[in-house]
Design goal:
This protein is of the alpha/beta class. The protein is built from 11 helices and 13 strands.
Length: about 300
């Protein structure tokens, strides 16, 4: 049969009637009248010269010809539906995705997540900018943002990524790295690397019951990414959270110096446009990021 002569409306009506065994329910499924379903089925039977239903049976039963047609129709419509879904997915997961993140997490953990993400969605081009949380509004509206602290951004959808805790780390090149969890007092003989506007070191030493002496060497950097860069270079000892330094610890670029932690003063949040403007590609990145963050928390 030529494709131009295939009665698609009649085939849809037939499939609905065959699946439900009832013309009324088939009509409800397709949003048409009982008479319309009946007419389309009669049209199809006349077109084929075959009876497709045993109408004396309740519910209606398919004839042998009807059963063969149902198998072919169902498979054909399924393939069409899958093709349409694939085309829609290609459109949803293509184009550019703008990402903004706080520097520490963005320069370490998030880059590995993005590598996994673009492997899954190769038609998405990611453009990422790192920025302190209080300056991220300069880059709005982004498709996906990670902020530390306040997530109150007008009109943005907010998802909790997670709460972390801090502990001291240093380069394996420092002598103190050879000691398994050294005395906190011994760390005071090294330069303590601080991030501006944070009190993590003082809170950690308070939890240890140790008060740093006045002569302790200190150096301050504007951002966690710089403090960790200095720690990797052997400048001194820095405070870090696990998501940010998990890869460094695993690959031996940094060494953890204590199992004592202090909680971060704020959680990490993901912000995106509201649901009506949320890109499927951004939602997919959010889901992946949350899963990977939870995995680190569970380790």
């Amino acid at each position: 049969m030529k494709r131009s002569r295939i009665p698609l409306h009649a085939l849809r009506a037939f499939e609905a009637a065959a699946e439900t065994g009832n013309l009324t329910r088939a009509a409800e499924t397709l949003g048409v009248t009982h008479a319309a379903i009946s007419y389309q089925i009669r049209l199809l039977e006349d077109h084929l010269g075959l009876a497709l239903f045993e109408r004396r049976m309740r519910p209606m039963q398919l004839t042998d010809a009807g059963q063969r047609l149902l198998e072919g129709t169902r498979g054909g419509f399924d393939r069409i539906a899958h093709c349409l879904d694939d085309l829609k997915e290609e459109e949803d997961y293509a184009g550019e995705l703008s990402v903004v993140s706080v520097p520490g997490l963005g320069g370490n953990w998030l880059t590995s997540v993005l590598g996994e993400y673009v492997s899954q969605f190769p038609k998405v081009t990611v453009r990422m900018i790192t920025s302190p949380w209080h300056r991220q509004t300069e880059f709005e509206p982004s498709d996906f943002s990670i902020v530390y602290g306040s997530a109150e951004q007008s009109g943005r959808r907010v998802t909790l990524l997670g709460q972390t805790s801090f502990f001291p780390v240093c380069s394996p090149s420092l002598p103190i790295a050879g000691n398994r969890y050294p005395d906190p007092r011994d760390m005071l003989n090294y330069t303590l690397i601080h991030e501006y506007n944070t009190d993590t070191w003082s809170r950690w030493y308070m939890a240890c019951g140790v008060e740093p002496f006045a002569g302790t060497r200190r150096i301050y950097f504007d951002g966690a990414h710089l403090t960790l860069h200095a720690a990797r270079a052997g400048t001194g000892i820095a405070m870090a959270d696990l998501p940010t330094v998990a890869a460094d610890l695993k690959e031996g670029r940094l060494v953890r110096l204590s199992d004592l932690t202090v909680p971060a003063t704020h959680p990490y949040y993901i912000t995106t446009p509201p649901l009506g403007r949320l890109k499927p590609a951004a939602k997919a990145l959010e889901d992946l990021a949350v899963r990977r963050f939870r995995q680190i928390e569970a380790e």
